[in-house]
Amino acid sequence: MKTDLRKIRKAAIVLANLSENRRNLFLYHLARIIDKRKLQIVEANKIDLLNAKKNKLSESFMQRLNFDITAINSMQERVQSLKKLKSDIGQIIDYKRSRDGLVIKKVRVPLGVLLAIYESRPEVTVDMATLCIKSGNSMILKGGSDAKNTNKALHDCIKTALKKTNLPKETVHMISSRSEIKKMLARNNDIDLVVARGSYSMVKSVLDNSTIPVLAHASGGARIFVDKSADLAIAEKILINSKASKPSACNSLDTIVVHQEIAKKFLSKIVPILVSLGIRVIGDGKVNRIVKAEMAKEKDWDIEFLGLTVSIKIIKDVIEASKFINEHSKKHSEGIITTDKKAIKYFTNTIDCAALFVNCSPRLHDGYIFGLGAEMGIATGKLHARGPVGLKELTTYKWEIYGKGHIRK
Question: Is the pTM of this model over 0.90?
Fold first, then answer.
């Protein structure tokens, strides 16, 4: 289908003028349609998985591509939860009235037209479409070719829901051509924001070629500092969850940073547990004097593993830990496990990243967990959004000024 950006812009204007109830009606229809077509979606995903296997794609990629009934049910829950949230479109953020009666309002409005470029995870198709419509934006989707059958099945559900809600079919438009993307990234008069989710090379390419503002994270992974005052039972639980629950996730654990005063006691216990879970452990010289691990190289501290590998570094205090983490952080997710309030304050004041996790797992870095209903992705930049990109992050504001013949004197 040819992409007509003028019609997509018109669809955004239609959405911006709809009531919240009308936008929620789309979510209602979409949830019902997905429920009826679960088996069709799963069958489409099986074709994508089979093709990925033939192409010998990595295990972590296969995990992200897999879209079974459990994943579909989870996606439906996000659609339902999003319906309960308020977009606050039209909300008056600020209000001023001058002495001579001039009224100045700062009003929340949709961004307009969004372009989403993403890889592997099929649920992103629905997460992005529902967030955009709920926040009054129209959307252009470009998913990865490896998930093309699943994405098409989901987009068919979206198109049916749009029709049932009597919304323009251009409200959510899907493209398949890579060559079309390059042209679109130059259309800054027609597209208001690009959201990029995927591999480092893909995101970097978008950032390098786009004349449109981009929300993205080029790479992720977390470092967690286990302080000398940490409850080691809690530390063990958090570290295992951070690494083993979903190693391919962008918020999974890459490096354990351990205070030297507890290193011997803690590493002697945690490393055998990690190894028993099939996790490859690499560490510096200090680590290898306590437990057997592969010797870490300097470049290892910068790797986003996206698999069953973790590195371990021993440091002398929270100051050195913060310095080390800031040097190697991807500004995505970082954590500390401690009972020392001074250590927490220093860590939270000095670490520069989208989300900090104090005595909890960075795997919690997720829009749904944060109460946003779903997310477009995690943004690690500082303009205009940071962390999970939800409804509020898909809005901007405009000034409305009301007078009675007022003029500039």
Answer: no
